[in-house]
Each structure stands twice: as structure tokens, then as C-alpha cells.
Amino acid sequence: ASSEIPKTMSGVVIEKPGDVSVLAYKTDLPVPEIKKGEVLVKNEYIGVNYIDTYFRTGLYPSSSGYPLITGKEASGTVVASNSPRFSVGDRVAYLSESTYAEYTTVSASRVVGPLPEKISSATAAAALLQGLTALTFVREAAGIEQKLGISEGPWTLVHAAAGGTGSLLVQILSVMGAKIIATAGGKEKCEQARCHGAQWTIDSTRENVVERVKEITNGKGVDVIFDGVGKATFDADLEIIARKGLIVSFGNASGKVDPLDILRLGAKNVKVMRPVLFGYIVTPEEWERWTTELFDLIKSEKVKIKVHEVYPLKDVARAHTDLEGRKTTGKLLLKV
Ligand code: NDP
């Protein structure tokens, strides 16, 4: 089944890795064709994620080579379907490759929908990737629930806590009743982290994170650290982690963490893991479980989605510049 579909579309193409100048907005790209089990979505909102900058710079190599249409998530309307699960006209959100475009083909197994009326297309595109990341990392990677059952519950720390993923980590940890220390760059970002449920905040641009954590935890350190900043914070993580603690290192906003001398973990019996969202949403059951749980949290307003700015798709370079320049809080969206 399909509705009227044009032959060409607009989108953003990267010819070779580089700075934001390699993001080329074009209006004559071919509309992709769907294969078995796929749907074609006319995108409305496209989520910007830090990972998009890694594919742009080449920190993560593109498996399909270049030219590349980057982007990992979007929301919109199904305009053609080769799957019994979705019909033309369904409003959906999804994870896929090549979302910085007017149309994207998606495996039906990575689509959520039809979206409930209560969830706008902007919220859905803003929530999916970072929300699933926060949820699976808190529950599956860190196993916070089990840890909450033990004595006073764990100390947790979230870096870049006013960012897209950070603000969701804080809210989800808060819903679960954890003790949360948030680090963020600046007074306003710290204020936001506090509104999302962090009981303690540290302004990483003015304060000494190691000293402040020692103060707050009475010298014990934190039991679980969620670190998407990477290179700039990893050494401090090893100082502030408590004995038997877990460092969930999941990103490279400041660069890739330097190679680790494994002997450094012995001093406090520390665990380090480097999870990737896509490894937690492999089976249909996993996809169903985590997307249902995420959308329930949003519908019940236990988790709120804050959009920093909606940029026109052709202004994608400004969106990347703002994200990499630490100028944003919450989620950046592109509008087709
Ligand atoms: P954010 O909205 O969190 O933006 C990045 C933030 O990182 C900035 O706002 C800034 O906050 C902080 N930061 C610290 N140092 C730097 C620096 N040198 N340059 C730029 N930013 C810096 O982005 P996302 O939520 O999209 O992603 C956050 C992290 O999570 C990224 O590393 C990303 O790769 C990772 N991620 C990993 C996933 C996985 O599966 N492993 C899935 C999703 C995200 P401040 O000013 O407060 O320090």
C-alpha cells in the first residue's frame, strides 16, 4: 500500500568526514524504495544525537561508506508499507539510518506506533533514542533496582546532566528513588538538573568535581557513574568511584576515553562498562518492552521531554555547532 510519493526529496549529505561545513543540504536526492518488512516514512521531526557528530567527523566510521545521509531517529507518517504491522497514514517514531532527510525506509521492527494522541510527533522524535538509552542503561546496564534494595541505596552521579541523555538519566533515576549527584556546565544547567530531580549539583565549569563529591558523600564516593562526556572526566571518575562501584562510560562528547591500564581498577575493585543502546534492543521482545516502558513514563508525565530548539533541516550545521559548543540543554530537533 502506498500514497502519492515523489521521486526526489530534500536531505543532508556528507561527502567526506569533516567539520560542520561537510553537512550539505540538497533538494534532489532520490527517495529510497522499501524492501520486505520495511515502511517508508515521510519525516516530520528528526532527532539530533551526539552520535551524528561522530559519523560526521569520522570518529565512528560509516559502515556503508560515503556519501552518507546521517541521523538515527525521526518521527513522521507512514506513506508506504511492506509490513502487516503498519498502515499508510500511521503516525510513528523510529530508529534507523539516514534520517536527515524528507523520507526514510525503516525496518518495521524499529518502529513505534501508531503514536498515542497524547504524544506529539516532536516529543516522540525527541524522546526515543536518548530515552531508550537512559532507561536501558539505568535498569539493565547498572541494575539500579537491585542496588536500591540494598541498605540505603546507591549514590549515583550523572555527568552532563542537563543534556539530552543526561536529563533523562536524572529523571529516570529520580523516579526510581536514587540519590543523584549531577554535574553540568554552568549555573542554569545545574538548576535544570535540580528541577529534574538531582538532589546535589556540581557546576563543572567552576567547582572541583572530585572534592565536591567527596564532601557530599562523606568520603565514600559514588556507587554508579553515568559518563557520556568521556575523555575529560574518566580520570576523575576513577577518583570519585566508591569501592565496588560501577562506571558506565557511554560516550565521547569530549573525545574518546584514553586506553585504560586495567590494573587501575584493582585499587577499589571497580567495574567499568561501555554499553551501546543498540545492544539492548536486539530482539522484538526487548524493543517492545523498552519502548512501552519509555512511552508509559512520558504519558504519565513522570518523565518530561525538553526541546532546546527546533532547527529547519537546512540549518543542521548550526544545530551541530550548538551541540558541540555545549550551548544546548535537552533535545535538539530538525524539522523537515
Ligand atoms: P548532550 O545533549 O548531552 O550534549 C553533550 C553535552 O556534553 C554538552 O552539552 C556538555 O554539557 C557535555 N560536554 C562536556 N564536555 C564537552 C566537550 N568537550 N564538548 C562537547 N560537549 C561536552 O548530547 P547527547 O545526549 O546526544 O549525548 C550525550 C552523550 O551520550 C554523548 O557522548 C553520546 O555519544 C552518548 N550516547 C551514547 C549512547 C550509547 O548507546 N552508548 C546513546 C546515546 C548517547 P556540559 O556543558 O553540562 O558539560
Automatic annotation (TrEMBL):
Pfam family, one: ADH_zinc_N
Domain Enoyl reductase (ER) per the UniProt entry, residue ranges: 18-334
Molecular function terms from GO: mRNA 3'-UTR AU-rich region binding; NADPH binding; quinone reductase (NADPH) activity
Protein's UniProt keywords contain Mitochondrion: no
GO CC annotation: cytosol
Coiled coil residues, start to end: none
Keyword rRNA-binding included in the entry's annotation: no
Keywords: NADP, Oxidoreductase
Entry-linked InterPro entries: ADH-like_C, ADH-like_N, ER, GroES-like_sf, NAD(P)-bd_dom_sf, QOR-like
PANTHER family linked: QUINONE OXIDOREDUCTASE PIG3-RELATED (PTHR48106), QUINONE OXIDOREDUCTASE-RELATED (PTHR48106:SF13)
Protein name: Probable quinone oxidoreductase
Taxonomic path: Eukaryota, Fungi, Dikarya, Ascomycota, Pezizomycotina
